[in-house]
Amino acid sequence: MPSRTINGSPQRSAAAAWVEIERMVLETLQPAKALDVDVVRGALDALDGLGPMLISAGVLVDSPLALVAAPLHLTISIHMGAGALTGQERLGKVSGAATATEFALYVPDPKPYRSEIHEAAKAHDALHAGNAPQPIAATQQTAGFAVDAEALRRISGGAR
Amino acid sequence: MSTVTSMRTSTSTRTQTAVHLTDVITGAFSAIVASLGLSSSYLRTHWEAIELGLMTWIEEGTLADVSLELGNSDDPEAVLEIPLDYRFTGVGNVEFVSSRARLARLTAKLTDVPAGTFYRIVTSHTGPHANVDGWSSTTSADRSGLSTYRLGSLGSGPDASASLIYHHRST
User: N or C: which end of chain B has fewer CB within 10 A?
Assistant: First the structure.
């Protein structure tokens, strides 16, 4: 599950950091031939103004934005303060979405911004308010660990 | 979508201070508007002009204060005033501070305003300053009937700092 952190203030203004998020989403989904770039732009346009607001309010520092374009599950967060001056960035395209046939953008919705974010999410089918569901691969790994019979036998044997 | 502000990637501490304090101020206004249950439409619509204006004027040192005025300017519900203090010495600590905890305490104590209350952002300046698209001349709200509550520093950078003053109607 790749993650990226973009340097915000004081290196970049909130609007400039949001431009980098938009560019990352567009370039990441560009190889997915099944996706219409205008639809992707439409989803991002629906967050115009709200995106920079969430950055300056510190929302994307604590809770990342998630781009889900299976098999890609990309989280994007923001560094602010001293971390924004020293943080290593990998901007632009993230690999892994070339075979995607649909995409969704999950916007964190903490108080007191919840109603505004839910309202914005209604403007486009690809937008969702709240946390993204966990990727399927991670769920399978967890399930596999939970039924590790050999480990259970070892624990059970040691208890005797 | 816009690419206007993408060119403002900062290099000098003076520019970084302007970017940082602009972020602190717009973040504070966003939190206050949301906490009061008001629509952020005004902020979102004018975001680029607000951000560019504050960054430009803090960097040139001409922004005296910026206020979020709530309600009619003749008889406002409340005014959140953020005065700026400059120290362009070039020897300050390269430290960027944001007092988000203090802001959170304030937003928890804000006096409610009527649903749909109009709000606007107003700046005052010391001396001549650059013109920035999207801003126009106006007169500040009358604060004479409001009680004043000084909350201290909201944020600081190497070359300037911002504090927060809450003017509100007495209950």
Answer: C
